[in-house]
Amino acid sequence: MAQGSGYGPRVVAVMGVTGTGKTTIGVLLAARLGVPYAEGDDFHAPAAVAKMSSGVPLTDADREPWLDRIGAWARGRAGLGGVISGSALHRAYRDRVRAAAPGIVFAHLTGDRGLIEERLARRQGHFMRRELLDSQLAELQPLEPDEAGVTVDVSGTPEEITDRVVDALRDLDRSAATR
Questions:
Q1: Hey, is 108 helix, strand or coil?
Q2: How far apart are CA 12 and CA 169, in angstroms?
């Protein structure tokens, strides 16, 4: 499972707006696949974290070094596999990561706004403020048909969501094998 393009285990980027469970699902998915997990937030520069902590959305210029660091990590895991989390809200952001790591596949976590808001209200100790959900939802460009990836609903338990991601990745592998 999660084999990619004939070169070994895939690198999967778990993406979505704040509150969809990228970290929780990323950790569970990595454990299920037997590959390392990297927290995408750890790739942000301190100035970017400070900006988000104060409720200010990042600009594209703020994100470029972050995306480059994620791409470099993913490239380094090519053929070895890995899971990394990150919002990857715009197609251009995903394209930038793909330019560094062409075999990466995105798992887009998506769900009902009310559910996401409820999860954000319960979350403690995270720098991303609830107020940024609106800007992220406004900016979100879902995966397009020509992008390697899967879209998975975030309702249910973390284990159920992870099961759906694993199943969707298997379906993606089967689909790629028949082309």
A1: strand
A2: 9
Q: Which two tokens stand for residue 160?
A: 């159920």
The tokens describing 135, both together, are 């800007």
Phi, psi of 140 (to 5 degrees): -55, 125
| Strand partners for 150 | 107
pLDDT tens sequence across 48-87: 988 877 878 788 899 999 999 999 999 999 999 999 999 8
* pTM metric for this prediction: 0.87
How far apart are the C-alpha atoms of 64 and 163, rounded to whole Å?
Answer: 32
* SS3 (DSSP) at 159: helix
Smallest CA-to-CA distance from 94 within 71, 65, 60, 128 is with 71
Helix axes 60-76, 91-100, angle to 10 degrees: 40
pLDDT tens-digit readout, 18-34: 889 999 999 999 999 99
* Contact (CB, 8 A) for 91 and 144: yes
